[in-house]
Amino acid sequence: xxxxxxxxxxxxxxxxxxxxxxxxxxxxxxxxxxxxxxxxxxxxxxxxxxxxxxxxxxxxxxxxxxxxxxxxxxxxxxxxxxxxxxxxxxxxxxxxxxxxxxxxxxxxxxxxxxxxxxxxxxxxxxxxxxxxxxxxxxxxxxxxxxxxxxxxxxxxxxxxxxxxxxxxxxxxxxxxxxxxxxxxxxxxxxxxxxxxxxxxxxxxxxxxxxxxxxxxxxxxxxxxxxxxxxxxxxxxxxxxxxxxxxxxxxxxxxxxxxxxxxxxxxxxxxxxxxxxxxxxxxxxxxxxxxxxxxxxxxxxxxxxxxxxxxxxxxxxxxxxxxxxxxxxxxxxxxxxxxxxxxxxxxxxxxxxxxxxxxxxxxxxxxxxxxxxxxxxxxxxxxxxxxxxxxxxxxxxxxxxxxxxxxxxxxxxxxxxxxxxxxxxxxxxxxxxxxxxxxxxxxxxxxxxxxxxx
Length: 453
Prior knowledge:
Layout: H1 2-9, H2 13-38, H3 46-66, H4 78-102, H5 111-141, E1 147-153, H6 157-166, E2 173-179, H7 182-191, E3 196-200, H8 206-216, E4 222-225, H9 229-232, E5 238-242, E6 245-249, H10 257-292, E7 298-304, E8 310-316, H11 340-348, H12 355-361, E9 365-367, H13 374-380, E10 396-398, H14 400-403, H15 413-428, H16 432-445
Parallel strand pairs: 1-2, 1-3, 3-4, 9-10
Antiparallel strand pairs: 5-6, 7-8
Helix pairs in contact: 2-3, 2-5, 3-4, 4-5, 4-10, 10-12
């Protein structure tokens, strides 16, 4: 089966790229056609919508080439693919709107039909691309649609790279050998078909690298230079290009451009839907809190948000005290400050529901590192390396640490460090699918934390 898949797909990468273009053009046109059918338009201006679709397709194809949308996505993740499509369509949308105003034809279009088209099209484009992407991943994981590669380097660099590639079976890369001598590799290339050659020199061996590149120019192999793999694997690191100079950025976050917009849309849409659903429950809890003990319904506490900005996080009051000063004592088991109702609310995380107000304000996300009291931040930032990197993204109502059992009191440094490690993993591996997984796990078992006091 895998041989058949490989045999059918391997020679047709150019055809797959052409198929992507045809599907994209069709989806852009169909999306506008459906929008115009659902929302009645003035029949006098019917043809102008066809011109808009044609112009959108032309703009999209031109920008897609610049953004490398149709380049092989073998080594890319869902986030990269989604980001490319979203950012490309965003520019197309702005160009179409600018064209309509420049030609004084904007009044001829239905705002509702065009708005629906501009929003629905990127969703369809992403679904189409991800579907094809998943099919190819499945084929590659089963041994089909593979590409062969060899590694040329020194010391431990080849084995380091191999560990990375072996953890990505979906990439469909088949290892044909590792070499430290260029002449041995050149001999193998003459007898084997090699698609990729990875140069993995640990030091600055300029002469060796130039010789290898020159010699491999006589083959059909694609050459990748991976200088200093250790640096490339540092916490939160990834490659960027400044002008035409490749660099490694350390401790960055994933929310730029299209990915920032995707995260914002996720918080806005899901946050609004969840808020509407939980509003009756919040009203009941609020009344119960007011009647069960003296004090306000909501507890407001200053915490650090995005980039260390101080925000006020909302919770249902669960204690007889409202600590928000230089010293904040974490709640512990059998803590006398916790009210009977508050104990139930904390154990089930229902006390966190008012934070959906914070999400709709744009101060928090549904998913992200949980914010801590300012006094705790100042304490742990001195004790745990990388602690403040949590604040490179918006804090969340729930997070990767929480669904992995790290809720409640952190009475030891090791427990807080484990929570921080999960938070940094989330930041460095973010995707819309990871967010949805965390939300699902929170609903499934996030309200039964045994350590949430």
